[in-house]
Each structure stands twice: as C-alpha cells, then as structure tokens.
Amino acid sequence: MGNSGLKQHYETAAKTGVLQISENKLKEIPNDVFNLCDVLRNLDLSKNKLTYLPEDICKLKHLKQLNLDNNKIDTIPNFLCNLQKLELLNVSNNLLVNLPQNLNNLRHLKQVYASHNKIQDFPKQLLGLQTLEVVDLSYNKITSIPPGMSQFYAAELNLSQNEISQLGEDLHQAPRLKILRLEENCLSVDAISPELLRDSKLHTIHVDGNLFEPKQLASVEGYNEYTERYTAMKKKMF
C-alpha cells in the first residue's frame, strides 16, 4: 500500500489518535506519521519490514502504545525513552539482542513484550520501574535471572523458551510477582528455592519442560504455602 493508500489512515488518526498501518511492507516510518505528533497516542507498525527507528519518533510526545511486533529491527535506540508517556511497548519478533539501557526512564511503562528475539541477558533496566504490570521475554536466549529482582514490580513475567538454569537469589522478594512462566528452560528442581515457594507472592508458576518433572515441586520446602496461594486465587476467580 503506497502513501496514497495510507491517506485515509492518517485522516482517521488525526481524529482518533490511533494509527494502525501494519502489514504494509514499510521499510521505514513514513514522514506523515510525524505530522500527527500532537494527537497520536497509539501507533501500530507491526508486520512490516522496518530495520531501524528514526530519531523523529521522539516527536510523538503523547504516544502511549507503540507496536513494532514482527519487523526486522536489531536495535532499539536510547532516544526512544524520550517518549515519556509510553505505557505499552511491543518489540516482539525482531532481531534484538538487548533493550535500551535507559528504558527505566519510562516511568509510566506498564507492558513490555519482547518475545522471539535474541536477548541473552535479563534486562536489568526493567528493575525499578514501579508501574510495570506484564513483561514477556519468552523465546530468547536468557541463561539466568540476576540479583536485584526485589526491584522488579511486574505482576506477570514470562521467561518460557529460554536457556535459564539459575534464578536470582532474591526473586522471591519481587513485591508484586504473581505469575511466573518458566516452561522449557534448563532448570533443575534445586533451582527452585524454598523461599520462592514459601515467601513470594507467586500463586502460579509454570515449569513444564525443564530438567525435572513438575510434580517434583511438591518435594520442595514451601510447596504447601504456594498451593495455599494458588487455591485462594482460584476461589477469587469463581
């Protein structure tokens, strides 16, 4: 779809603040997007062929949601973090090896989706972001969860399909973490500490496809406390 075909999308976005131009084989962000800098709050550029982000994206000062899923981007530049109102960032299905170092400047960020990339280290820049709710880092190459998770504020963390063999010693101190997905990693049952089951806020932990059978969790000290939280959560749902 050429620029003429996108014209109606821009006109609609000028009224609604929402611009959806996915699946248009775009290799770069059209300049017309930046003409909407005073109104644009939601920008969907997914399923294109973008390889980079221009610095002009900083002009979108009101942007709350940015969807870059399914492109060919290998670097998210630090200047993206000038989008101070950003609440949702989706960079899944790209070629990223890391996230911007100053990501923790985005003080309103609630949701981060970065699955299906090439990230090797857990992004410590997510620590300290008190607005975080959901983080998806599945299908990457992360090998461990670092210390410092007492400053990780999301309620849901997806790390399935990585190469994790070690969990951070203070993971149980993550103040709001309730759902933890660790399917298909390299964990032994010894990597699941009693503190994680006994002292955390976790009510749901998924460990299928690791180096032990999920039923072996029952032998870890603290399992009873974990199941009590799980049962209480289920009761609230019904």
UniProtKB/TrEMBL annotation:
The keyword Repeat applies. Keywords: Leucine-rich repeat, Repeat. Residues 39-138 form the Disease resistance R13L4/SHOC-2-like LRR domain. The keyword Repeat applies. GO terms for cellular component: cytoplasm. It comes from the Eukaryota. InterPro entries: Leu-rich_rpt, Leu-rich_rpt_typical-subtyp, LRR_domain-containing, LRR_R13L4/SHOC2-like. This is Disease resistance R13L4/SHOC-2-like LRR domain-containing protein.
